[in-house]
Amino acid sequence: MIPHLSEKSYIFPTEKARLQVKRILAEITHHDLIYDTWGMGEKHQSDIALSINCYGLSGTGKSMLLEVIAHSLGLKVVDVPSTGSKFVGVPEQIIQEIFAFATIHNAFIVWNEADRDFGKRLEQVSQSADAGINSARSILLDQFSSYKALIGLTTNLIHNYDSAFVSRIRFEIQLDLPDAEARAKIWQAQIPSKLPLDESVNFSQLAAQFDEISGRDIKKAVLNAVGSAASEEKLDIEKRVTQAHFIQAMEEVIAGKKAAEKEEIKLTPVTEKVDLPPQPSRED
User: Taking 80 as the threshold, does the pLDDT of residue 275 lie above it?
Assistant: First the structure.
């Protein structure tokens, strides 16, 4: 039986993503059937390590999806922070300890913001720190290729991956911004049963009105809207969260994102002497 991800535990942003995960779970759970019974192993060698790379915009639920996949397969999760260090030799040690620990527990290794550690190796090595980066990535590549369980990666910057890692990634899941149906479900999923909602609230309308948003944006808007409703000068029993609260909160979230995306104006310092044009004398 193929494990499935229920809508209660995870809301897929698009149907495409749901089908990708369904296919991945099918191959993992029916590995013996595919490679032994059906003979695919005669033509195609099965990778020792099965890795899943989730990529897409920030706030689309990449980390959450990997954790739910691990739960559906009954696997423990080892959540990896960055292995970077200013001390030579430390990243290599951290990488080896991570894989050794995960091997003991047959764990699903989840590497968030993986582009930090899986980035391109340096072609021009000019100092010991550069050599250390390449050394760490070579050890990571070796451990990554030989790990006998699942590895999950998340990134917003997939183009930063070293090609050697890309060629070894078995499954790719692209998470786009949620479609209208998913947005409506995400709005509803944020609402506890005790929250006093006004009759004006319509999640389908909110989903249609605000389209270029992520699940994280919706979560933030809901929290801000509830805060606004709670702060009103009324008796607590009279307070309600209205459609207007949600609209205003989402507009503020979108405005904040646009402000953060504006290109910063940077001043370039002048390092060379510049000849200024002659200045008019006071007598002119």
Answer: no
